[in-house]
Amino acid sequence: MTKTTRLAFALLSSTFLLGLGTPSFAQSGEVNIYSYREQGLLQPLLDKFTAETGIEANVLYAGDGLLERVAAEGELSPADVVLTVDIGNLVGAEEQGLTQPITTAALAERVPEAFRDDDANWTALSLRARVFYVSKDRVTETALTYEDIAGPEWKGRLCTRPGDHAYNIGLIAQRIAATGLDATRTWLAAVRDNMAYAPSGNDREGVKNIMAGTCDLSITNTYYMGAMLNNEAEPEQKEWANSARIIYPDAEGEGTQVNVAGGFIAKHAPNAENANALIAFLLSDEAQQIYADTNYEFPVVASVAPAELTLSWGALNPVDTPLVEVAANRAAAAALVDELKFNEGAQN
Predict the structure, then answer these.
(1) Spatial separation of the C-alpha atoms in residues 159 and 214, rounded to whole Å
(2) How far apart are CA 7 and CA 1, in angstroms?
(3) Distance of alpha carbon 308 from its chain centroid, rounded?
(4) Please, what is the angle between helix 285-295 and helix 39-53, to 10°?
(5) By the 8 A CB rule, do 114 and 322 touch?
(6) What stretches in the chain show pLDDT beneath 50?
(7) Tens digit of pLDDT for each residue in 183-238?
(8) Cβ distance 248 to 127 under 8 Å?
(9) How big is the CA angle at 141 (ends 249 and 196), to the nearest 5 degrees?
(10) N-to-C CA span, the chain
């Protein structure tokens, strides 16, 4: 069986196994990308990449199932680069043997050690911070720590999405890595008992409920502020966002918890050289600025500034807990959420 035939077979078999649509891939002068990232964010980056390198970028977009797809395709997979969100997905891909080392020099030169794999099997491409949105009308504090929201003064005033969502699991896992399991259990139980209602909905809903007066502080990712303020399709979201301001937790102390959007090169990438060229481009100043300006995320490359709107919310001091340590505590974080019945809300 020729390589071309094997690739065609992989595409057909993976469609059968996972029920996802399949684009047409060729082999030379191209790079094949499986992406969780939305097309509106990724396409401007890929257009620039192709213009500068002449390498054609083929993309399969999917909301979920991409890691399972790569695993099912095995050595016949056409995937060169997989772009995903959350440290759990990146480390999970490595643990499943789906990755190969990234060899571009840009990795070590541009990405801080805390935000890349020690063996170069994955890298962060942008950062997203888990912060506090607080009511402009009802909250006077201008600085808070994660510990502060466990205090009695916040009783009945907090809101967030379910504790077992990846965003909150990442936060809880970071707390375990930084303070230990027992201290995190005590903290999380107190945060649970300070909830205004049982954790539910999504990050935008928490900000909506701040405007409604249902809660005073929502644990939410930073970039939603930019997304809501610029939402022309649903202008009511602008009102939600304008009712709140952002506080970066522990900004003057240990730093604010961050998660990542990132990527890896697939183990059986047919175009590994082009895959490394794409990773190098995504770590360039130009691409990092597009990430920042388009999605209000933080560049992982320190020399690139966030978008002006993002800077207006304050300066990010990211916690320096290595992401591999955070990932190692994700299972313990999920177990705590279940043990404490966090998603049921206040217990007293």
Answers:
(1) 9
(2) 10
(3) 21
(4) 160
(5) yes
(6) 1-27
(7) 999 999 999 999 999 999 999 999 999 999 999 999 999 999 999 999 999 999 99
(8) no
(9) 80
(10) 66
Rounded distance between C-alpha atoms, residue 307 and residue 226, angstroms? 10
The two beta strands, 99-100 and 123-135, are unpaired
pLDDT (tens digit per residue) in 52-78: 999 999 999 887 788 999 999 999 999
pTM of the model: 0.87
Structure tokens at 131: 């912060």
Q: Which of 194, 185, 193 is nearest to 217 (CA)?
A: 194
Q: What is the CA radius of gyration of the chain?
A: 21
* Alpha-carbon distances of 280 from 9, 96, 111, 125, 255, rounded to whole Å: 30, 24, 11, 10, 28
The amino acid that residue 336 corresponds to is L
Helices and strands in the chain: count of H runs, count of E runs: 15, 10
Render 17-65 in DSSP notation, one character per residue: HH--------STTEEEEEE-S-HHHHHHHHHHHHHHH--EEEEEE-SS-
Return the pLDDT at 142. 96
Query: Kind and range of the H or E element at 126?
Result: strand 123-135
Cβ contacts of 272 within 8 Å, gap of 6 or more: 80, 100, 265
* 210 and 218 Cβ atoms separated by less than 8 Å: yes
What is the DSSP track for 128-146?
EEEEEEEETTT---S---T
| Cα 5 from chain centre | 36
Which residue in this structure is represented by tokens 């078999």?
Answer: 13
Tell me how far apart the alpha carbons of residues 248 and 146 are, in angstroms, rounded to a whole number.
9
Owner of token pair 């990211």: 318
CA–CA gap between residue 322 and residue 114 (Å, rounded): 4
Residue type, 68: E
- Beta bridge partners, 298, equal 127
Distance from C-alpha of 86 to C-alpha of 177, rounded to nearest angstrom: 16
